[in-house]
Structure formats: C-alpha cells, structure tokens
Design a protein that fits this description.
This protein is of the alpha/beta class. Helices cover 43% and strands 15% of the residues. The protein has eleven helices and seven strands. It has a seven-stranded mixed sheet, with helices on both faces. Strand 2, helix 6 and strand 3 form a beta-alpha-beta unit. The relative contact order is 0.14.
Length: 284
C-alpha cells in the first residue's frame, strides 16, 4: 500500500462486493467507485443476483466478485456473533472501504474505530460525505508500518477495559511477518477478556503450487509488486494458528472459502482466490 494514494486493492475489493454473488452484496460499496466503474458494477449486480448470472460474473471478474462476497459474509457473521456475545466496541484494522459500520444492524449503536492510511481515509471521507460523521464512528488516519495499534488508538476513546471485536481483513499479506506479529501484539495489548479477532492471511499456494510453482510463484509475486502492493507474508493453516496463539490468541480456528460458502448456504466452487484463509480467535 502506497502512503500517498488510496489502496488499489481497497477499490478492487469494493467493486467485487458491489457486484456480489447471489444474495451476498454490499449496497454501499459503489460509493467508493468512480462514476464509470459505478455504472458497470451496478449493471453487473443485476446479473449477479441470479444463480447462473452470479457464476458468470465470478468468471468475468476472475473470481473476485464471488470471493469478496463470501469473505464479507463470513466476517459479517463473526462481527455479529462477537457483538451479540458481549463485544461492545469494534476496531477495523486496515479498514479500506469497509462498510460494516453502516450495513450491520449489530453495529447500529456500537462504537467503531477504523484504522488506515491517511490517503485511504481521506478518500473514504470524501466518498461518504455526511455519512462519515455517523455517531460512534472514528476514522483514524494512521500508518501501521510506523505506529503501533495502542498508539494509533490512544486519544480516540477506545477502551481497553471492555471487550473488542477486531477485524483485520485483507491486510496481513502485505506486511512482513515481523509487522504482522507487532500488530497482533498491539491487538492483544488493547484487548480486555472476552475480545475476539478475525484476520485473513494468504496461504503459500496464493503464489502458485504444484510442478509449475517455480515459474508461477515469481510471476505472481511480480504482479503484486507491479500493483504496488507486494505479498510479503504467507501462512499455511498450522502457521496461521500458531502465530495468532503466540501473540495473544486463544482457540484459534482457520476456515477457507469453501467453508464460507457452506455457511452462507451456497454451493462450493473453484476459487481463484482460494488460497486465502480466515483465522478467528479469542484475545485478551
């Protein structure tokens, strides 16, 4: 992620959520798209709401629309369960163009802190307009490569003595392992007992697997570098659980896109982004 501009992946993910997959859809995501992309996404959504159309749009978007919709739904469920279970505040780390503070009924009266780079936060404020001033919402501009989680939240009203639901979605792969561990340590420091964490990680297969891996891995890594957002860390299931537990997590559990589809009552499909995993755990 480049400090001087809003994240390209944040916009791509917003486009994927705007198109969605069948009943899974983010109606606010088009807010963050330029006018032409907004019209294209709206037209694609009218197709993606139907079963056959949803699969066609998934193919057309190289899997992005389906994957981002499933990931959104999985983390939506996590947040709703965590808040219903006693988490009275939510922190979204590397929030990008997240819309849960507006979409989820569970967050209607729940304080939410969103942390992200100043350029992304500024783009979000401009796109949201008056909605950016929702009661209990704190859009905190911060570069987590240079600032710890405790320092980022200090002075913004977050309480360390009550449980927090932490969402860290689509960010860890772009950080080196040491930075991932520092963020996890910061989350643990700011978490009261009863807090919960959901974070996504990239499985090593993201950069290619099988006999062609020696070729596909450097090509994939090069493609991410060209976008300005290189993949810097990957974890298989065991490593993902281990790093979360080593840095304050308890009862870590890993799920894959096929699990997210089944939880949403949808059939499993081949997933071009299937190397992503969701890790959930108790913290604090």
């Amino acid at each position: 992620m480049t400090a001087g501009r809003a994240s390209l992946t944040a916009r791509a993910v917003a486009a994927g959520r705007a198109i969605g997959y069948r009943h899974l859809h983010d109606p606010l995501a088009t807010t963050f798209l330029p006018p032409v992309e907004r019209r294209v996404a709206a037209a694609a959504r009218r197709v993606a709401v139907r079963p056959a159309g949803a699969d066609a749009m998934a193919v057309a978007t190289l899997g992005l629309s389906r994957h981002t919709a499933l990931r959104m739904a999985a983390i939506d469920r996590f947040v709703t369960v965590a808040v219903d279970g006693g988490c009275t505040q939510v922190v979204v780390v590397g929030a990008g163009f997240d819309t849960r503070a507006w979409r989820l009924d569970a967050l209607a009266s729940t304080p939410v802190w969103e942390l992200d780079l100043p350029a992304t936060q500024q783009a979000k404020r401009e796109a949201l307009g008056d909605r950016a001033h929702r009661d209990g919402l704190h859009l905190v501009p911060v570069d987590l490569a240079a600032t710890t989680i405790p320092d980022a939240l200090d002075g913004h009203g977050h309480r360390r003595d009550v449980p927090t639901a932490w969402v860290w979605e689509g960010v860890a792969p772009y950080l080196p392992p040491t930075a991932v561990e520092e963020v996890l340590d910061g989350i643990a420091t700011c978490s009261a007992p009863g807090s919960h964490l959901a974070m996504t990680v990239a499985h090593p297969d993201l950069l290619g697997r099988g006999p062609l891996a020696p070729v596909t891995r450097p090509l994939a890594a090069w493609a991410f570098r060209v976008l300005g957002e290189p993949i810097l860390s990957t974890y298989d299931e065991d490593a993902a659980e281990a790093v979360v537990v080593a840095h304050g997590g308890v009862d870590a559990h890993v799920t894959a896109p096929a699990d997210w589809a089944r939880a949403a009552g949808l059939p499993t499909r081949p997933d071009a982004f299937g190397a992503e995993r969701l890790v959930t755990a108790r913290v604090g």
